[in-house]
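can u do me a favor
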């Protein structure tokens, strides 16, 4: 047991050194923008993310409490035997003493010694009970700390993907606005010539205002998401931040996803495992539990199992459908590229206008941006799905 505690404290000490070293080096060496790299997110979480550092600190605090309990036992034990010796002396003297004043004093001393002995006994008993409990829970707490790291890293990845996706959506919105602004003079001319009504012109201008509002909303959302990423990773709000490039993520892996993984996923889901434990703990007859409590726990387990299965099916189907749509859009974009090439040839021969060619090129550029946004969304969902399954498989291996 002591070896376990020593190892636990060593992990916390090492973690503290890593944290202090990384924070110092980051503040001392940083001269330009902080580049947040996707492949280094786990390292950033481990060394800077407040949510994980708090979990690690609590883990270390448990180790300190265990050490305090270990230290308390020999101290209370020594005081216990000292007061036992005092009590024996007082009782021996009490048996032979005849002076009423001394007898009264001895009675007080005996009562005080008995109270101290009971207090030291409680300290020893509670310390041993705490150590037994902590010994049983130590592995669970270490596993929870690892789970905290996995969960925090997954959240950081989603914020990273979210910012990348917002950048793509902003590019799409700005392109749409530029296209509308480029067409506005032509609409004004058509209105002057009586080719479009005032209502049609007003609708067109309303479309420009809507595009401007959409850009403003996206910019606000991006600032909010970047702030969340900064706070999550412990980056100062005053520091300049840049996002690194995304690694290549093979979306074709979506084709190999199996619905057969659902049963293992559901069985080893942490919520289902906890619900099963509660059901076992509330079995009638155990610690006064009733049939009603057991029935409620059974219903909860059934609902939790159904929810876990539905969650898996939703994620699985969302990936499959999203990848199918992505591939279709990719094919559509190839056709659009051919249309642009054909229109360029017609323009060179004088049988297509410059405006027709520019509009088609704008359509292609927008379609490419939209498909890149769809790719980012799929990458985000695939990574989250893979991380979730990896955590489930790891938990399953640890429990087996």
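np, heres the sequence
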């Amino acid at each position: 047991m002591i070896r376990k505690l020593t190892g636990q404290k060593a992990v916390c000490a090492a973690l503290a050194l890593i944290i202090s070293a990384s924070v110092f080096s980051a503040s001392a060496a940083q001269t330009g923008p902080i580049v947040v790299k996707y492949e280094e997110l786990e390292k950033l979480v481990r060394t800077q993310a407040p949510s994980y550092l708090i979990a690690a600190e609590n883990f270390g605090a448990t180790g300190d409490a265990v050490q305090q309990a270990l230290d308390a036992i020999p101290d209370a034990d020594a005081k216990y035997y000292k007061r036992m010796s005092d009590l024996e002396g007082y009782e021996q003297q009490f048996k032979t003493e005849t002076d009423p004043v001394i007898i009264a004093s001895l009675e007080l001393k005996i009562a005080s010694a008995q109270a101290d002995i009971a207090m030291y006994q409680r300290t020893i008993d509670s310390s041993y009970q705490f150590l037994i409990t902590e010994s049983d829970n130590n592995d669970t707490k270490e596993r929870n700390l690892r789970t905290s790291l996995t969960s925090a890293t997954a959240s950081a990845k989603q914020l990273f993907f979210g910012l990348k996706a917002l950048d793509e959506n902003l590019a799409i919105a700005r392109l749409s606005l530029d296209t509308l602004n480029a067409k506005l003079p032509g609409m004004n001319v058509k209105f002057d010539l009586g080719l479009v009504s005032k209502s049609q012109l007003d609708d067109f201008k309303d479309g420009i205002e809507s595009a401007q509002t959409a850009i403003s909303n996206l910019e606000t959302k991006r600032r909010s998401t970047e702030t969340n990423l900064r706070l999550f990773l412990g980056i100062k709000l005053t520091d300049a931040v840049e996002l690194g490039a995304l690694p290549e993520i093979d979306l074709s892996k979506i084709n190999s996803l199996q619905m057969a993984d659902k049963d293992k996923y559901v069985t080893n889901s942490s919520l289902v495992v906890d619900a099963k434990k509660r059901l076992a703990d509330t079995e009638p007859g155990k610690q006064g539990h009733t049939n009603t409590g057991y029935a409620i726990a059974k219903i909860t387990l059934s609902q939790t199992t159904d929810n876990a299965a539905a969650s898996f099916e939703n994620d699985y189907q969302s990936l499959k459908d999203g990848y199918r749509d992505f591939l279709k859009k990719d094919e559509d974009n190839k056709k659009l590229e051919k249309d642009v090439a054909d229109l360029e040839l017609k323009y060179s021969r004088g049988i297509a206008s410059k405006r027709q060619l520019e509009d088609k090129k704008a359509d292609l550029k927008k379609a490419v941006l939209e498909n890149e946004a769809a790719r980012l969304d799929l990458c985000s969902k695939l990574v989250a799905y893979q991380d979730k399954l990896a955590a489930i498989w790891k938990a399953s291996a640890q429990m087996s």
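The beta strands are 34-36, 241-243. hope that helps!!
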